[in-house]
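ARCHIVE CARD
Drawer: 12
Card no.: 0347
Subject: one protein chain, sequence and derived structure
Cross-reference: see card 0346
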Amino acid sequence: MKKYELTYIISDKVPEKETDLIIHNVKKIIEKLGGKIIKEDIWGRKKLAYPILGQDYGFYVYNQIELPPNKVSELNSNFKVTEEIVRHLCCLFPLFPEERKPKSKTQSKKSPKASLPAVEKVEDKKLEEEKVKETPKKTEVSKSEKLVAEEKAGEERMAELEDKLKEILGE
């Protein structure tokens, strides 16, 4: 079984008393599919980022679940059919915090050059210095120079527009 994050939004049209029933039904669906809920976090009624089905608010529920990978599509199908749930997202959860293992000193990556003899290191430095000399340096333009150039371009454009306006008006 793999671990997933599941977040779903219950319609704002559903009375708050019935949200518990919907949450319970979602638990039943997950268990029926052979999964289990590891963590449940009810975020409650929140404003949506954009209206969904003419609604500005929804009741958010977040779950961390374990589910066989071949049952995820079935879970998504169940959510699509359930009218009370307006949006859902189920995605693979990489690692739970309690499973994250600190790296030991033996696992830390050493640079491959650390084990090379000193002669090879000196040669590598010479090669790197030659590469740096070969690459042309980019000319950096300061912000003030850019602003001055933009102002000049703007002034020239305004002068052109004034000339055209005088020409049109016959002045």
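Annotation on reverse: The radius of gyration is 31 Å. The chain has a mean pLDDT of 80.
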